């Protein structure tokens, strides 16, 4: 495992009294960040813990000395050093003068992702979960290099704060042959994500820190276009995503479903239950519990379904070190169902209860019922996820083809509120004698019941 940290380039931009101390420090290679606050002693934070670097307190002149030697601060109060991965963040007072600096050490660590290389080769979308500072950005930087150089994929990095490929217009060598698109403002990240797909034909898109609803929607759109995604977001575990309504759509979205009495008895549950709404945008999730111990969910939709139905899910734990072989073991992860119920009030703001009469069927009177199991279906999905339909139909054992041409379809399935407005589609379907089936809301349960209904 090789490390490229360009630490000397960061140290040479510090005041002289700090340069000498850091250059001679025994734990120099374990440095995480340097904190300089006006009127306080300078502090270094190592993997082992923090320590003061000098008895001298930081002055205005010390802060000014550093800020004049680095790039300009952006609207997010971040700056960098040319051709390095280091990040300098500032704290400002009420007059917008800088009175504090956090100098974060950026490292390109080659060989970190050997433990999950098989997951990258599967060509599935991967989401990395972890607390701030655990090393998510370092991991996706190495993933970008491996995908671009070793697997020869067309990789585009959406580098919002220049943390993945450095502050210079020329990207750092740590990303290999991957291309980098810079984002002018943080709030425009979702637009650049879509632009990357439309203009540059990537096979893989890499996004750091997905955090807003617009970015989640962009990620889902990209996943539907067949592009592999590798992204990061804040959180300790899969349960955190379920409890976070803006991010829940990354794993298919969560909603309350009202079951019939018979269905509730069959399942042995209450009538109102939590259920996954659609197909996850990310098929694999990696939880960074510790720098050397990761929990892997290789089948996210199955993990989410298990978690919502019971109080546990299965996870694969992978452990590694520099001196030992990689260890892989399965582990039953306990999840409190009570903690999910406690968040019901928070989820209600973003999740609507399902109407009991959730299916409406538009068919001509002379139309004969389709025998789904005896025919190969040609389905035209309208405002509906292709992946969700595939998942349901494959599970139920039907032969089917999804088409983009209405004339070739044997039936149309779509969302009622969108079908209502498309008179052209309804007229064409009527002319060709193609039945239309509509759903009030989209969920795994609703699509399953619809397919069961039209096949009976």
UniProtKB/TrEMBL annotation:
Segments forming a coiled coil: none
SMART domains in alphabetical order: AAA
Residue ranges occupied by any AAA+ ATPase domain in the UniProt entry: 122-261
SUPFAM superfamilies per UniProt: P-loop containing nucleoside triphosphate hydrolases
Any one GO MF annotation of this record: ATP binding
UniProt KW Nucleotide-binding keyword: yes
InterPro entries linked to this entry: AAA+_ATPase, P-loop_NTPase, PTPase_dom, Spore_III_AA_AAA+_ATPase
Highest taxon listed in the record's lineage: Eukaryota
Keywords: ATP-binding, Chloroplast, Nucleotide-binding, Plastid
Name this protein carries in UniProt: AAA+ ATPase domain-containing protein
Gene: ycf45
């Amino acid at each position: 495992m090789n490390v490229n940290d360009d630490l000397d380039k960061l140290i040479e931009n510090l005041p002289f009294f700090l340069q000498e101390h850091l250059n001679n420090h025994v734990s120099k290679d374990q440095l995480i960040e340097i904190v300089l606050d006006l009127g306080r002693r300078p502090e270094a934070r190592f993997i082992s813990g923090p320590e003061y670097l000098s008895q001298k307190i930081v002055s205005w002149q010390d802060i000014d000395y550093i800020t004049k030697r680095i790039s300009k601060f952006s609207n997010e109060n971040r700056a960098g050093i040319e051709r390095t991965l280091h990040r300098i963040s500032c704290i400002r007072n009420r007059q917008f003068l800088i009175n504090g600096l956090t100098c974060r050490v950026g490292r390109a660590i080659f060989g970190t992702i050997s433990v999950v290389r098989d997951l990258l080769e599967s060509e599935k979308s991967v989401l990395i979960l972890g607390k701030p500072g655990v090393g998510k950005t370092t991991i996706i930087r190495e993933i970008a290099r491996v995908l671009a150089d070793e697997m020869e994929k067309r990789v585009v990095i959406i580098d919002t704060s220049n943390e993945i490929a450095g502050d210079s217009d020329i990207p750092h060598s740590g990303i290999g042959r991957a291309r980098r698109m810079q984002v002018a403002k943080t709030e425009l990240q979702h637009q650049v994500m879509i632009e990357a797909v439309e203009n540059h034909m990537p096979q893989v898109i890499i996004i750091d820190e997905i955090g807003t609803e617009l970015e989640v929607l962009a990620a889902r759109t990209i996943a539907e276009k067949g592009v592999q995604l590798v992204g990061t977001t804040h959180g300790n575990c899969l349960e955190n995503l379920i409890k976070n309504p803006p991010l829940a759509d990354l794993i298919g979205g969560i909603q309350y479903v009202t079951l019939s009495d018979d269905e509730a008895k069959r399942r042995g549950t209450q009538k109102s239950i939590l259920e996954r709404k659609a197909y996850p945008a990310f098929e694999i999730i990696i939880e960074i519990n510790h720098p050397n111990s990761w929990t892997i969910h290789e089948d996210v939709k199955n993990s989410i379904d298990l978690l919502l139905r019971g109080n546990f899910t299965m996870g694969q734990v992978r452990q590694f070190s520099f001196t030992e072989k990689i260890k892989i073991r399965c582990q039953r992860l306990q999840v409190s169902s009570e903690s999910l119920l406690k968040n019901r009030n928070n989820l209600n703001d973003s999740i609507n209860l399902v109407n009991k009469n959730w299916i409406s069927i538009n068919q001509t009177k002379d139309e004969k019922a389709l025998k789904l199991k005896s025919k190969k279906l040609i389905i035209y999905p309208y405002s509906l996820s292709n992946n969700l339909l595939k998942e349901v139909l494959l599970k139920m054992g039907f032969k089917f083809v999804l088409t983009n041409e209405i004339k070739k379809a044997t039936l149309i399935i779509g969302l009622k509120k969108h079908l209502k407005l498309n008179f052209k589609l309804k007229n064409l379907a009527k002319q060709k004698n193609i039945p239309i089936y509509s759903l009030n809301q989209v969920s795994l349960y609703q699509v399953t019941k619809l397919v069961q209904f039209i096949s009976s």
